[in-house]
Every structure is written in C-alpha cells, then in structure tokens.
C-alpha cells in the first residue's frame, strides 16, 4: 500500500468522480483507476462500487477512508512541522482579529512585529470571534484573538490578555442619552439593531444578559456593520457595541455611548487549536502580544 493510493481514494470519495479527482491531483483518470484497483487487489476487498447511479463507497471503504485520511493528516502535519523546524527561510503565519475588540493590536502588529521578527510573514484577517473559532478548528488559521468568555470548546486553548465592557450606543436625542447610565431592564421593547444574526459575540453577550434579567429583546438585523451606526444616528433604534467600537463613533455628533449601571464585562485574549502543532512563529506571536500587553 502506498500513500498516493490513499490520496487517490480520498479524492475520488470527495468528488464522487474519477475525472474531477484526477484534475485536482494533476494525474490522468486511468492512473487513479488503476491505483485504486491495485489497492483493492492488495487488500482483497472491495472499497468502492460503480453503477448507473455513480460511485458508492462500501462499508469496508468507509472504514479505510476514515483511517486513511487520519494518516494523510498526520503526514501533512509532519511536513508542516519539519518545514517549521528548518533553521532558515521565511515563515508564514495566518492570524485573525475582530476589529471590534482587537483594533488596538493592529498598529502594534503592523508596525512593531515585522521589525522584531522580519523572518515571519504575517497574514492578518478581520473576522469575528465565532468565525475565528471555526477556522481554528478547521486548521485554516493558526492563532486568533477575540472574546474568550463564551468559548466552551475542548479543541480551543486560550490565554487572557485584557478585559472589556459592553456598551449601548444611542442617538443624542434618545431619552437614554440624558441618563448618566442605563440598566438592562430599560431595554424592554427598545428596538435593538444587530449585525448578522447569530454571528457575533456582541449579540450573544447582550441576549444572554437580557435573558438572565427577564428582558425580552426586540431585534432588527442588518448586513453591514456601518449600517448599524447609520440607523442609530437616524433614530431607528439603539445598538450594543464592544469597547473598541466606541472610538468609531466619537466623531459622530449624532451618536453617544452609554454604560450599564451594572457593567457587562468580558475578557479578550489569544486562542489556538490545542490539538494542532503550534509553530515556532505562532509561539513567538503569542509571546510578543503577551510582552507588549505587560508593558
């Protein structure tokens, strides 16, 4: 049995088509057919069947596929580790931050990190915490920064960096604008504008606190974050924001931010996949942010 046979079998299963699998692997269709037939002959068992309905993986094929793909994953991980351990050469690191909580880091990473680690090519993305967790688990990212309070996932390791506070933004003519602070029960029947249903930590944090207080939300969702601020300014509702977003409305004379009398606090920090090898570049990245925060 050869690794390429496992790779061919995995690709055919993924596409349920020999031709598409061959195109992905840059080999001919007969090459894949012959390799899989030889694999079945060596094992003495049928792994897949072809009929008028297409390609079907047999029971034995399902077991072979599950074990085989684990082997392929281990090989890829090993290659990645060996590449990381090379003493020289440019390293690449993919990281992500939500601008709502990590804007303070962007300037630091773009200005200071390259000077301290010129051998690391840093690829940064602006993503929400929940999207970051998903990509870490899919191994599309190596490290992320976001709100870590509500991340209860055995696959994710985190390191707290700094705290934050949830606030509400309202138009300057809204009754809340004339209050020194507001309470969670004041949100009853207030139209609250939210960005992307079910996709942001801000939404989860606010709704969890409203539910705990027995307050029923009245939510309106929009597709763009900038639309949230525009609708608040136009007195179409109020909105919840995290600390870093408050700076985005300071120059807007029509909007003001209000704190809760009982602060709704959260913690932000670094996160990574505990089941994946953490490269030297990622460890340097984590150490860098920790050292900068300590200053």
Automatic annotation (TrEMBL):
The keyword Zinc-finger does not apply. Keywords: DNA-binding, Transcription, Transcription regulation. Gene3D superfamilies: 3.40.190.290, Winged helix-like DNA-binding domain superfamily/Winged helix DNA-binding domain. GO terms for molecular function: DNA binding; DNA-binding transcription factor activity. InterPro entries: HTH-type_LysR_regulators (IPR050950), LysR_HTH_N (IPR000847), LysR_subst-bd (IPR005119), WH-like_DNA-bd_sf (IPR036388), WH_DNA-bd_sf (IPR036390). It comes from the Bacteria. Residues 1-58 form the HTH lysR-type domain. It holds the Pfam family LysR_substrate. GO terms for cellular component: cytosol. The keyword Transcription applies. Belongs to the LysR transcriptional regulatory family. This is HTH lysR-type domain-containing protein.
